[in-house]
Design brief:
alpha/beta, Rossmann fold, Beta-Lactamase, 5-stranded parallel β-sheet, 5-stranded antiparallel β-sheet, 15 helices, 10 strands, elongated
């Protein structure tokens, strides 16, 4: 197989090139050894590297180098302080690969909040210590009648439930999953019960993950961060979809406005747009031709400058009526630039464009 094909296969199999365990070790190393390079605890390093090293061969080489350096770093770490200079050199090499100038996602992240709900709150265990070391803000709550409002007040990014008997936590989990603020957050339950039926019940309720105790703290952190990462991706996808829908709506609106402008421009009636302060902000060609004004001279005039029957104070009455009823029909006389009068039938329409309110006035010669 050609080397390009091998690189492509490896590139597409990023989980082989950078396993979750290796990613965890790298993030932990960055947290503990490189304070100035703090990264988002949920960052997917495999995806990050894949986006950074566009060339498949570069990506494979970077992953291979990281695996080699991490194994060497682990071996050196087990020997205590016997090889400090070599350990420092290895860490610098790891940092060089991860903090390439191309990498823009390795930035300090806002502190993430993990709420841990327990049947009894006691001293810190290994998992809690590890989560704090990873940069999370850990909030411990005792399960009780006020737990739900306390959780909502803390606005967590994820919820851990440490239940000796899962039945005690299912009711609270159901309440959280019914709450609009909490229902989409990752909820992980740890329990002493190992039965398949308990796990199935938890998953049917909507609990994100069910972890049978005893557990390894490192495993819980990895599973938690996987769920946080998925949650982050889902939120980003929803944001992107909303932005795309808005963009399409704006495009449709722009097309509709262009068509409307064409229709208005070709209309035999003259059409003017007036803002709430009684200033003409736009008008079609017919308005200028029939009134004898250039477009520039017409824009900026007030309605009473054209309408012989309209006093300055009358405009607010017309505007208030339009806000309530959306339309108004009047007969009046408009004064041409030459001083002549035109008898017209006026149809006022209340319109909103890009968040601004206007009156569209269609004038038909009587």
């Amino acid at each position: 197989m050609a080397i390009d094909a091998i690189a492509k296969d490896s590139f597409e199999s990023s989980s082989v090139q950078l396993s979750p365990t290796l990613s965890y070790y790298l993030r932990k190393l960055l947290r503990e050894q490189f304070a100035s390079s703090t990264i988002n605890p949920t960052v997917d390093l495999a995806t990050l590297l894949r986006q950074t090293y566009i060339d498949p061969q570069d990506f494979v080489a970077a992953c291979s180098d990281l695996e080699r350096l991490v194994r060497y770093h682990q071996a050196l770490s087990t020997q205590g302080s016997q090889h400090p200079s070599e350990l420092e050199k290895t860490e610098r090499e790891i940092l060089r690969i991860l903090t390439s100038p191309k990498v823009t996602a390795l930035l300090p992240a806002d502190e993430m909040v993990i709420v841990c709900i327990m049947e009894q709150v006691s001293g810190e265990d290994t998992l809690q210590v590890l989560l704090r070391q990873r940069g999370y803000r850990l909030e411990l709550l005792r399960q009780g009648a006020n737990t739900l409002p306390q959780v909502k007040h803390l606005e967590p990014d994820a919820i851990l439930m440490d239940m000796t008997m899962p039945e005690r936590g299912f009711e609270l989990a159901q309440a959280m999953l019914r709450d609009r603020q909490l229902q989409r957050l990752p909820i992980l339950m740890m329990s002493n019960l190992h039965s398949v039926s308990d796990k199935i019940k938890a998953l049917k309720l909507g609990i994100t993950d069910y972890i049978a105790q005893p557990v390894q703290a490192e495993e819980v952190v990895i599973r938690l961060e996987n769920q946080l990462q998925f949650h982050r991706y889902r939120k980003q996808l929803e944001t992107d979809n909303r932005a795309l829908r808005l963009q399409l709506q704006e495009q449709d609106s722009s097309r509709a406005m262009l068509l409307a402008q064409q229709v208005i421009s070709c209309s035999g009636d003259y059409v003017m747009f007036i803002d709430r302060n009684n200033h003409i902000i736009d008008a079609n060609v017919s308005a200028g031709e029939q009134l004898g004004y250039s477009h520039n001279d017409l824009v900026g005039l007030s309605m009473e400058a054209l309408d012989e029957r309209l006093a300055p104070e009358d405009w607010q009455t017309i505007w208030g009526h339009l806000q309530q009823h959306s339309s108004l029909n009047l007969k009046s006389f408009h004064r041409k630039a030459s001083g002549e009068s035109l008898e017209v039938s006026l149809e006022f329409k209340y319109v909103t464009l890009h968040g601004q309110d206007y009156s569209c006035v269609i004038a038909t010669l009587a």
